[in-house]
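This part of the workshop introduces the protein records we will be handling. A record pairs a protein's sequence with a compact description of its fold. As an example, a complete record with its sequence and its structure tokens follows.

_____
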Amino acid sequence: MSTDTAYVTKSRKGALEVIEFYHPQSNSLPRTLLTQLAAAITTAGEDPAVKLILLRSAGEKVFCAGASFDELASIKTAAEGLRFFSGFADVINAIRTCPLLVIGRIQGKCIGGGVGLAAAVDYALATDSAQVKLSELAVGIGPFVVGPAVERKIGLSAFSQLAIDATGWRSAEWAHQRGLFAELFEDSAGLDEGINRLVTQLLQSSPTALKEIKKICWEGTDHWTQLLQHRASISGRLVLSEESKNAIERFTKK
């Protein structure tokens, strides 16, 4: 489904819950969509009929462009900034605390918070066109909220490269070599074949074993609820700076 209206949808295929999001501005994420995403993931994790979650976005060229620039431009207070950036924290924490494995379908570019989503899922499959960029520093803030998820997946060195070179794209192969993407495919057709293979395999596996694997994969992150809220407050404060406001204005006029 692809329209001019942003959405988060859920659909069930047997024991697989498919959660899809869309926004007409390159799948960017305003606070409302972030809230819906977090709720959809949490609800799926609580449903005894669900064994596995697939997170995907609509369209072909961009998986997720990160924060909504229109909403960033509208932030007037630190409290508003905290509330907005807490949306990304809520989605990452929803994936982290969900007892089910979350598989990511990464069909296109990941920017800013989109890299955070790709890093937060438990297993990401991507196409060769899924370039990545952490663009936050270019708009006067930084990848503070998504940073723990990205660093956990690819390591401090690779994360710092993305965070510091905020205008440079890294290829899907770069991301694959560093562990952000578990598998790469030439196109969306191959990507979907790979996802179907993995999903079929996992749905035939022991639900209890899958849940234990999930716990092990996220060991040592119990403090993230507080950590990501703190990081959101940093971004919420910095987005009010003159440098950030000017940079966001330039981006919204492009």
